[in-house]
Amino acid sequence: MKYVDEFRDPKAAKIILSRIAAVCDEIGATKEKPVHIMEICGGHTHAIFRYGLDKLTPPGIEFIHGPGCPVCVLPMSRVDECVQLAERPEVIFTTFGDAMRVPGTRKSLLQAKADGADVRMVYSPLDALELARRNPEREVVFFGLGFETTTPSTAFSIQQAMREGIQNFSVFCNHITVPPPIKALLDDPYMVLDGFVGPGHVSMVIGIEPYRFIAQDYGKPIVVSGFEPLDLLQSVLMVLEQIRDGRAEVENQYARIVPDAGNPASIAAVVDVYEERPSFEWRGLGEIDKSGLRIRDRYAAFDAEVKFGIGYGAGARVVAEPEGCACGEVMTGRIKPVACPQFGKGCTPEMPLGALMVSSEGACAAYYQYGGARALEPAE
Amino acid sequence: MCLGIPGQIVAITDADRMMAMAEISGVRREVSIAPIAQGNLDDVVGKWALIHVGFAMSEIDEVEAAKTLEALHSLGEAQEELHAMQATAQALGGAA
Ligand code: SF4
After folding, report:
1. Which of A100, A138, A249, B92 is deepest in the core (most CB within 10 A)?
2. Backbone φ and ψ of A179, nearest 5°
3. Is the pLDDT at A40 greater than 80, yes or no?
4. Which residues 6+ apart lie within 8 Å of A32 measured at CB?
5. How far apart (Å, rounded) are the C-alpha atoms in residues B47 and A63?
6. Residue nearest to atom 5 of ligand 1 (CA)
7. In Å, how far are A339, A340, A341, A352, A369 from A325, measured between CA atoms?
8. How many other β-carbons are positioned within 10 Å of the β-carbon of residue A175?
């Protein structure tokens, strides 16, 4: 229990851990026959490794790392389109820093910048909007990336641009949604999933209702969780207790931040600005129905896809993953990162080959950063 | 990138645009309060909120804010957020 003593409340952690062990015994979960729990959110993946929760919990629990890291699921073709936009002389291409190092077919945004493209890291889409106000002779494009937590920010920014009549601002929309890939994974006959730890901050926006199908249609428990170690342990216990009791429900462990109904103002802004795409491509997962958003026609003036004729639907979409990388299999939980032949060799956080190595929320980067010696152990 | 960081709303800066000054771990930054503003904007002054990419996404209480901040520091996320805020100043400065 090396790590537990670092927790703010080690005593509470130990109590929850012993209860987890007891429920594992009751349901007969062992290393040979483990319960598979998927943490959907990349922030949770990061926290699980940071605090060593996968090692503290009994061997009867296996964590499957979900697709909830927006950078990691960004397909190479989208990065290529970003580079294409950024290389236009009139464009100032603005992006969250996380996306800078994601490899594209030709180059990453960071390399495009080094080659002379005007690529700027911003903290907020509001900063991109400000850049547009200050540079009326340039076209400012913001790379809209992220899940439901982030989508409202670009929706509000587009609404604001419309109110002010700003004509040189547009969003390259690649926003995606959490529930559809979960459904796709549940429909995958190769996946074994017994329960879910649900994302906290996505749920703060959308509430807990969108997960109802997981419990109702698929009979699997899901517990929306905070990202502190005690939150995560508590949520794992709640999932296990549901399994033991034969229940499948949507529970909210993070009610202090997540209202059951979500955030109405944000939901309204998103519905006003965006609509579902018929399908969207996810790195490693392929096309998933209704999993991405596009800008509605009435806001077309702010849609970079329309403005520059670049993007989804134009040209070949699916680009093959780099040679020898196993991102797809890691992404779907079929293998652990260390089983990828490139892990730690051709692919490191400094020189990522696959997107799972780029962000601290990616499973490969988390293994690499916190795995230490254990990352070099033979594949589990 | 989805975790956000707690900040305290200290003043309304532009009521029309729903913008306010927030103090985030000692750094001041203008944020949008559109997600949490209801009725009188001044009501949010003094409140704590979870700030994500420049938007006050959700109101939180002060104790929760302190706990969250501690957890974010331990994950290295707080430093990352503050870093991103600084990077932005550069992006804006670069073209002015
Ligand atoms: S180690 Fe690199 S190439 Fe291999 S799966 Fe992870 S991100 Fe992909």
Report:
1. A100
2. -60, -40
3. yes
4. none
5. 37
6. A327
7. 10, 6, 7, 11, 19
8. 26
Chain A residue with the nearest C-alpha to that of B60: A257
Contact (Cβ atoms closer than 8 angstroms) between residue A109 and residue A85? no
Of B38, B58, B88, the CB nearest to A123: B88
> What interface predicted TM-score (ipTM) does this complex get?
0.91
Whether A155 and A270 have beta carbons less than 8 Å apart is answered as: yes
pLDDT-derived band at A319, boundaries 50, 70, 90: low
B96 contacts in chain A (CB < 8 Å): 134
* 3-class secondary-structure state, position A146: strand
Residue A134, chain B, CB below 8 Å: the answer is yes
Smallest CA–CA distance from B65 into chain A, residue: A257
A108-156, pLDDT tens digit by residue? Answer: 999 999 999 999 999 999 999 999 999 999 999 999 999 999 999 999 9
B30 has pLDDT over 80: yes
Q: What is the DSSP string of A282-327?
A: ETTTEEEET-BEEE-GGGGGGBHHHHHS-STTSS----PPPTT--H
Partners of residue A199 in chain B, C-beta under 8 Å: 2
pLDDT category at A285 given cuts 50, 70, 90 is: confident
Q: A218 C-alpha to center of ligand 1: Å? A: 30
Q: What angle do CA B60, B65, B67 make, to 5 degrees?
A: 135
Report the pLDDT value the prediction gives residue A3, as an integer from 0 to 100.
Answer: 60
Q: Which residues pair with A286 in a beta bridge?
A: A282
- Within the 230-259 window of chain A, which residues sit less than 8 Å (CB to CB) from chain B? 256-257
Which of A8, A44, A122 should be substituted to probe chain B, the one whose Cβ sees the most B Cβ atoms within 10 Å? A122
Dist. CA A102 → ligand 1 center (Å)? 12
HSE-CB at A206 with a 13 A cutoff on CA atoms is: 22
Contact A153 B53 (CB under 8 A): yes
User: In this structure, what token pair is assigned to residue B75?
Assistant: 């994950």
Question: Looking at ligand 1, which residue's alpha carbon is closest to its atom 3?
Answer: A325
Query: In this model, does residue A205 exceed pLDDT 90?
Result: yes
Summarize the confidence of residues B44-71 as an average pLDDT: 92
Task: Identify the structural domains of chain B with CATH numbers, from first to last.
Answer: 5-88 (2.30.30.140)
A233 is written with which tokens? Answer: 């342990």
Nearest to A266 among B29, B35, B75 (CB): B35
Query: Cβ A8–B70 below 8 Å, yes or no?
Result: yes
Residue A192 has pLDDT above 70, yes or no: yes
B35 close to A (CB below 8 A):
yes
